[in-house]
Amino acid sequence: MLDFIYYPVSAILWFWHKVFGFVLDPASGIAWALSVVFLVFTLRALLFKPFVHQVRSMKKMQEFAPHIKALQEKYGDDRQKMAQEMQKLQAEHGFNPISGCLPMLVQIPVFIGLFHVLNGFHPGAASNFVFNAEDVSSFVAADLFGAKLSNTISQAPEVLAQFQTDRTSMLIVGVPLMIAAAIATHFTARHGVQRQTADVAQNPQTAVMNRMTLWLFPMFAIIGGPFLPLAILIYWLANNFWTLAQQRVVYRRIDREEAEKAGTATVVDSTVVSAETPAAPAKPSSEAAQDEPGEIPGVIEDRSRDTDKPGESR
């Protein structure tokens, strides 16, 4: 039913496995793990512009927070009027909060698609979407320090034995991935919360959401980690590392743009002249005359001889 998601996800994973399999052993767990990581990087690179739009939308929401609060106080009991005024405010300023959620919404089907593709790797399977039997055997045989990428920590011992691994090996690799994913999720959320204005952070609903993103969401990696394939944990960790780095780049870019808007500088004859610096007032002609060296105030100097004719000397 969701083949339009499963095939592109598996195709990107297949492509990167061919790349890293050419350099490393195709059956190496490192080659397959790097393929998952670069699957994340490929998808997030495609979503870079929507992410920038998301950041700008969130900033506009913070700027409009006082206006929204005023509308809530004025039309709190009239939801229909409140919705109309909100739409009017958004239309006036070209702001659409739903479009800012696009990167997050797109990642949900990708996550589901990768989960489904990983579940298709079984010993003896003839194919798995774009992967043929040889690719399936390569993935099933791949391991990281004895742990299989398509298995979970919570699986029964007999299931793990079919993939030639055991719970101890899965715990040795899986637990550090779970902890690292939780820490990365926390710092990614913290970096976003620090960008909030004081008015937004003081909102009770925002405060609750901040606590959830800072502490509850990272706990999902710990609580749900044992039930997720190791490849999904690698996906989770790589996704958060990309998000954290991307946030730093985009936030610096937006801060620089705002700084330029606040004080625009103009380049004139290779000299930077600030637009905010007022020009020095012109001196009155009388003062200018007094400042010129070699002139006596009140005496009109005869300049008729200033220009000598050729061959003449004074």
TrEMBL record:
Annotated segments matching region Disordered: 270-314
Domain Membrane insertase YidC/Oxa/ALB C-terminal: 32-252
Pfam families: 60KD_IMP (PF02096)
Compositional bias annotation for Basic and acidic residues: 300-314
InterPro entries tied to this protein: YidC/ALB3/OXA1/COX18, YidC/Oxa/ALB_C, YidC_ALB_C
Bilayer topology annotation: Multi-pass membrane protein
Localization in the cell: Cell membrane; Membrane
TM annotation in the entry: 30-52, 170-189, 215-238
Lineage: superkingdom: Bacteria
Biased composition (Low complexity): 270-288
Keywords, ordered alphabetically: Cell membrane, Chaperone, Membrane, Protein transport, Transmembrane, Transmembrane helix, Transport
UniProt keyword Chaperone present: yes
Similarity comment: family membership: Belongs to the OXA1/ALB3/YidC family. Type 1 subfamily.
PANTHER family recorded: CYTOCHROME C OXIDASE ASSEMBLY PROTEIN COX18, MITOCHONDRIAL, OXA1
General function of this protein: Required for the insertion and/or proper folding and/or complex formation of integral membrane proteins into the membrane. Involved in integration of membrane proteins that insert both dependently and independently of the Sec translocase complex, as well as at least some lipoproteins. Aids folding of multispanning membrane proteins.
Subunit structure: Interacts with the Sec translocase complex via SecD. Specifically interacts with transmembrane segments of nascent integral membrane proteins during membrane integration.
Protein's name in the database: Membrane protein insertase YidC
Organism: Saccharopolyspora taberi
The gene coding this protein: yidC_2
